[in-house]
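Here is one chain, start to finish.
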Amino acid sequence: MKNYKKIETQDIDTLINNLQSKDGNFKKAVKVLQIFFFVLILIFTVAYVFNPDPEMGLNQRIGGGCYVIAFGLLAFHFRKKHTIYKDVNYSASVKELMVEAEKRYRFWKNNQLNSIMAIVLLDVGTCLIMISYFSGKWSHLQILIGVQVFYLLSAGIGFIFGYIKWKKEIRPFWVSLKSQLKEFEE
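Its structure:
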């Protein structure tokens, strides 16, 4: 037989207020990132795709196109996240609100395909552009290895900093959400 505990109203109110505050902060952050990537799309479209410079080779144009597509994927990704944070229904049942919030604040989400594709496109674009600039000084293999080392280090450092930030700032809230959800279900 389940023990139906009643969660304190004050705890629920505090949780919802914290949730609204965190959601508001994330909504602002993803909006800024979305605008940032739209600006990058414009800059790289002009600089690499529509640049009339006859000395710009096909590799550079294709690399710039990879950048534009990658920034488009990232802008779309952040647009989708903004919509998720904007459309949160705080008048829904407490359990439903907590379940959705727990999913939003997990560190690793399963819907990261756009981000991964963008990272790969940025890598390909950088390789194509760097080959054009440095092919006289280094071999293609040296350039590719250099770009891969840079990308692996950057991705690793970014992942570590992101995890540390999540663990310090978001994880306590996420753990609180999970424990209150568990209490709610008992």
